[in-house]
Specification:
The complex is a heterodimer of chains A (227) and B (251). Chain A is 78% helix and 3% strand. With 227 residues, chain A is mainly alpha-helical. Chain A has one domain: Up-down Bundle (3 helical TM bundles of succinate and fumarate reductases). In chain A, strand 1 and strand 2 form a beta hairpin. In chain A, helix 2 packs across helix 4 and helix 2 crosses helix 9. The termini of chain A are far apart. Chain B is of the alpha+beta class and 251 residues long. Chain B has two domains: 101 residues, Beta-grasp domain (Ubiquitin-like (UB roll), Roll), CATH 3.10.20.30; 128 residues, Fumarate Reductase Iron-sulfur Protein, Chain B, domain 2. Helix content of chain B is 35%, strand content 14%. Chain B is elongated and about 60 Å long. Classes of the chains: A mainly alpha (227), B alpha+beta (251).
């Protein structure tokens, strides 16, 4: 199978899963923004998704994408370390054209994974999982919250400055990860030329910044509201 | 006239492929600025030979930047800190008086050290042998202009063909990937009508040879492009990806 036994094939898997995850982030961010305008509307979205069959199917698909992306990342890194050899340069120069993010995708990805773990604990566990486990209420920060009361959960979570800071660190790592990931994915898929290389980088940076700002603004607004 | 400089050389010495290497320190005195880096090593070697010591072994051939034989990882950069030149075209005026210059061989699993600063780059020949050619009957010379090629395409093919196969891309890559070299060699033929016919077969054969020889997976860090003495663009890599994916989807 060329998707696992050729270098380009393995990278195609990274690109396609990565782009799919970017698409997911876009939807997620758009839904989060609703919480800024109306708690009721946001709870309606939570109810509409919740643990309904279509939401569960999508969750399984999303989990699969994430796991494949991570497994391939680790696999590629191990292969590449082997290809690099055992001896390292005594002096390692830097070139301007080489972005810091591009050299540290695994590190950035690891921070993103830790963020996902925290996020699952903060939200998924109290919402979709609570619904699957047929819990009517969970207790967060001493307050009872129903599984579809998303807006209340956001409010309670970001009243904590620790969570606010952790989420912002997570989003920053994700921003760096995507500034390289976005154009790099399209490059790997062969969808690039002299003109489009610069365009994709600009588009990638702008898109990434918008998505991350969309997430960050919800965190910051709810933190400020709690003061 | 360039002024003379004195500096310290820190050079990797390694007796044989399996032997353990180490840096040796040499003091260089009053080297004229218009000495090329390789000429400077010649001066060092002459001195070493006169003293009855083993000279430093390094690759070189044409010394005019077109053969791809010279290598050397100088002060953290393949072919030295100056952009778009090979080591033989690098002059000592680019260095400062009193500086320490560190000289290392290419370091990559695909390019094992043979001795001192010489590495085994036959893997590149093997990749070319896997498909980096056009299988045509040459016969009698064709009439000029029977096969017309636009200026843009000719320029693109020429840019890709300027790759001299020195291996700086692999040396610079944190993933030990040879994608810039392979993609340039695939592109120089793939964009021309004579090469297009075999483009799919060529891309598949050369890439699988590259993977088989233990080179890494490209992550588009662009270090290769930045260090390439011939300024080969990573656009070639996008083209190789495209050719390869198209070929695999067709299978």
């Amino acid at each position: 199978m060329w998707l696992s036994n050729s270098s380009i094939g393995r990278k195609v898997v990274m690109s396609v899963t990565g782009l799919a995850l970017v698409l997911f982030l876009t939807f997620h961010m758009s839904m989060n923004l609703v919480a800024l305008f109306s708690a009721d509307a946001y709870d309606m979205i939570c109810e509409f998704l919740g643990a309904n069959w279509y939401a569960l199917v999508a969750t399984v698909g999303l989990a699969a994408l994430t796991v494949i992306h991570i497994v391939y990342a680790i696999w590629l890194t191990l292969l590449n370390r082997k290809a690099r050899g055992t001896e390292r340069y005594a002096v390692q120069g830097k070139a301007e054209e080489v972005s810091w993010a591009s050299q540290n995708m695994l590190v950035l990805g690891s921070i993103v994974v830790l963020g996902i773990a925290l996020h699952l604990f903060n939200f998924w566990y109290n919402m979709q999982y609570a619904e699957i486990a047929e819990l009517t209420n969970v207790t967060v920060a001493g307050t009872a919250v129903g599984p579809t009361e998303g807006a209340k959960l956001i409010e309670l979570t970001f009243a904590s400055p620790v969570y606010t800071v952790l989420y912002l660190v997570w989003l920053t790592a994700l921003w760096f990860h995507l500034t390289h990931g976005f154009w790099s994915a399209l490059h790997t898929l062969g969808w690039n030329n002299k003109l489009w290389l610069k365009r994709w980088q600009v588009v990638g940076n702008a898109y990434t910044t918008l998505v991350i700002l969309g997430f960050a603004v919800v965190v910051i607004v709810f933190f400020l509201k709690s003061l | 006239m360039d002024k003379n400089i004195s500096f310290t050389l820190k050079i990797w010495r390694q007796k044989s492929p399996k032997a353990k290497g180490a840096f040796a320190i040499y003091e260089m005195k009053d080297i004229p600025g218009d000495t090329s880096f390789l000429e400077m090593l010649d001066i060092l070697n002459e001195d070493l030979v006169n003293k009855g010591e083993e000279p430093v072994v390094f690759d070189h051939d044409c010394r005019e930047g077109i053969c791809g034989m010279c290598s050397l990882y100088i002060n953290g950069h393949p072919h030295g800190p100056e952009g778009a030149v090979t080591t033989c075209q690098l002059f000592m005026r680019k260095f400062k008086d009193g500086e320490t210059i560190t000289v290392e061989p290419w370091r990559s699993a695909g390019f094992p050290v043979i001795k001192d600063l010489i590495v085994d780059r036959t893997s590149y020949d093997k990749i070319i042998q896997a498909g980096g050619y056009v299988s045509v009957n040459t016969g009698a010379p064709e009439d000029a202009n029977t096969c017309r090629i636009s200026k843009e395409v000719a320029d693109e093919a020429m840019d890709s063909a300027s790759c001299i196969g020195c291996g700086a891309c692999v040396a610079a890559c944190k993933n030990g990937s040879a994608m810039l070299f392979v993609s340039a060699k695939v592109s120089q033929l793939a964009v021309l009508p004579q090469g297009k016919v075999e483009a799919a077969r060529r891309a598949k054969a050369m890439l699988s040879k590259m993977d088989e020889l233990g080179f890494g997976n490209c992550t588009n860090t662009r270090a290769c492009e930045a260090e390439c003495p011939k300024s080969i663009s990573i656009i070639n890599i996008a083209r190789l990806n495209r050719e390869y994916i198209k070929a695999k989807l067709k299978d």
